[in-house]
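Thread: "does anyone have the structure for this chain?"

Original post by V.I.:
We have the sequence but no experimental structure in hand. Need at least a predicted one for the grant figures.
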Amino acid sequence: MVPNHGLGWRVVLLLSMCGGGPAGAQARNATPVPVTLDGILSADRDDSPAFTPDGQTFYFDRTIDRNKTIMVSHRVGGHWSSPVAVPFSGRWLDQDPAVSPDGTYLIFSSNRPVPGGDSVVFEQNGKQYRGAHLWRVDRQGSGWSTPVWLGTGVNGSNLVVAPSVAANGALYFIQRLGGAMHIYRSEYRNGTYLPAVRVALGDSTQPTHDPAIAPDESFLVFDYGTGNGTLGRLSIVFREGNHWTTPQDLGDDVNRDAPWGAHFSPDHRTVYVTGNTHIWSVSLAPWLERASSPR
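Reply from O.Q.:
Generated one for you, tokens below.
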């Protein structure tokens, strides 16, 4: 079971899921490396860091009491600064910050009130839990714009989380529809997010979680299935024409700590994930090199 890092919905959904197992054959293996970034990060309170393109700033969410707040740290003089809350976060349950590939905006999930409505909640088994919708803030000088709700085309349920942004603005995320979580994609066109469409990955009966999309949408890292009572096994797929390859499991060493919440390093060859005991970095080199080699 994944520990409750202030994300009660993850625990609730695990209780309702069934079936599942390791994704595909293990084509390669990698050794995960624990990450603290000068002692800033700890898996019992923090989620995976999301870096700016220059690698000099990272955002993450931190459990504070029963809330989650988006934090930021900067690399100064070779060391990471003490993290502080970003100005648009701190009151609501804000989580899953995703930096756009060009660094000009950030997408995050929050249970804050939607325009003309109340804070987002969802119900399951007669109980009410804090939900989430996706919001966007844009860079304005050294600060940020007011958060903008992404509307019903993206926020199609009361539990929409784990965003990841492609270079063309396409938004990948997960939402709960019909009792299970799956990955969806919303195309960004003329300043508008189009209605989201479920991404077809592997066995359609298995849940899919926490996407990390490559800037050119050539590959995707995500949690697949339900594994051994967890949110699934960290896996990778590659785009071939208009479909995705069979999910490749990233191996037992990578999945031993039940990783979730993948975010890319600035060069997009490593993912940072949160596990039961540590935040880890996982090199994707074995899979990327195999995918790029002549067949």
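V.I.: this helps a lot. The helical segments are 8-16, 151-154, 252-255, 285-292.
O.Q.: and Residues 8-292 form a domain with the Neuraminidase fold (CATH 2.120.10).
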